[in-house]
Design brief:
The protein is α/β, with parallel strands linked by helices and 328 residues long. The chain has eleven helices and twelve strands.
Length: 328
């Protein structure tokens, strides 16, 4: 018996931190949608994050390296379109560690630019062949780091000025997407969130790394003097933003900054996490910090304006202390 689904959705990078949280939430929320997850399963992604979803009839997993398997991807999505009938694309696939990008920039170029463009090419072909029959959507997850070092509320029209190879690859694919919008009239929505945190995040980002170091009684490495500031957005708030934009019926080919309300420097963040872990406000957090050599250039802060998505009725709900309580 063939099951009818209202949407058939391709999730690229679905075993990583944000992608797996997305699937865990949306596969259950929308049982009338079918979700196909593609992931190459690298060090920061984990099949166990989504393994339980295989019990559901609206989820499928495919292991595939998007940067090296264009022919396979094209055959699956385009040549044999009527076997899967994917109409909605949400791209989470990306390498996101700034420090790793400084060591292996070409690897980031391959995985953040070529891999995404391979998916874009399939999307373009599907639109060419079937747009008279189906409505196609594409949402790309970018980052606030594409704007570079900013200390003012930059809106979606802000200049892209990335300062590290990771951010540069994300800015590059944003511009490639923009070229596809103009050249091929493709509807593609770009989301640029702050630093997202929550369950299943690999411990190379400062929040899970700090928690892990405290649990293992090892020093917490902090770049420079710890005064760099970041805004943090809890994963559920980001997922609600995606849900709103995906289902709002608004015009596509838009860019949205998805910003949290909490800006905090690294020293204060470590202090707050120590207070949560040790359940006291009197803890001396400095004894757990080991200051390490700073990056060649380390953005002081990212300050983005999120008025555009707020006009749709979205706002962050989970404040940082509450979010930390949910993952410690």
């Amino acid at each position: 018996m063939t099951i009818h689904f209202d949407k058939r959705v391709l999730i690229t990078g679905g075993a990583g931190f944000i992608g797996s949280n997305f699937l865990s939430y949306f596969v259950r929320k929308y049982p009338n949608y079918h979700f196909t997850c593609i992931d190459k399963l690298n060090y920061a992604s984990n099949f166990e994050n989504i393994a339980d979803l295989l019990q559901l009839n609206n989820f499928k997993f495919i292991k595939l390296d998007l940067s090296e398997s264009f022919e396979t991807l094209y055959s699956m999505l385009v040549t044999n379109f009527h076997q899967m009938e994917i109409t909605d694309f949400i791209n989470f696939a990306a390498e996101s560690c700034v420090d790793r990008s400084l060591i292996s920039p070409l690897y980031f170029t391959k995985n953040n630019i070529l891999a995404t463009q391979n998916v874009l090419e399939c999307y373009r072909e599907l639109r060419n062949k079937y747009s008279h029959q189906y409505k196609f959507n594409f949402i790309h997850i970018s980052t606030d780091e594409v704007y570079g070092d900013i200390n003012q509320n930059t809106d979606e029209q802000g200049t892209l000025c990335p300062t590290n190879p990771y951010a540069a690859t994300k800015a590059a694919i944003d511009l490639i997407i923009q070229s596809y919008q103009y050249s091929y009239n493709l509807p593609i929505t770009i989301l640029r969130p702050n630093n997202v945190y929550g369950p299943n995040q690999y411990p190379e980002k400062i929040i899970p790394l700090t928690i892990k170091c405290l649990q293992e009684q090892s020093p917490i490495p902090i770049h420079g003097d710890g005064t760099n500031k970041r805004c943090y957005l809890y994963i559920s708030d980001f997922l609600h933003a995606i849900d709103l934009i995906w289902h709002s019926g608004i015009s596509t080919s838009e860019i949205y900054n998805i910003g949290g309300d909490c800006e905090i420097d690294n020293n204060s963040l470590v202090k707050l996490i120590c207070q949560k872990v040790f359940k006291t406000n009197s803890v001396d957090h400095t004894q757990y910090i080991q200051y390490v050599k700073d990056r060649g250039y380390n953005d002081k802060e990212y300050s983005i304006n999120n008025d555009k998505i707020r006009q749709l009725g979205w706002k962050p709900v989970v404040v940082l202390p509450e979010g930390l309580d949910m993952i410690i």
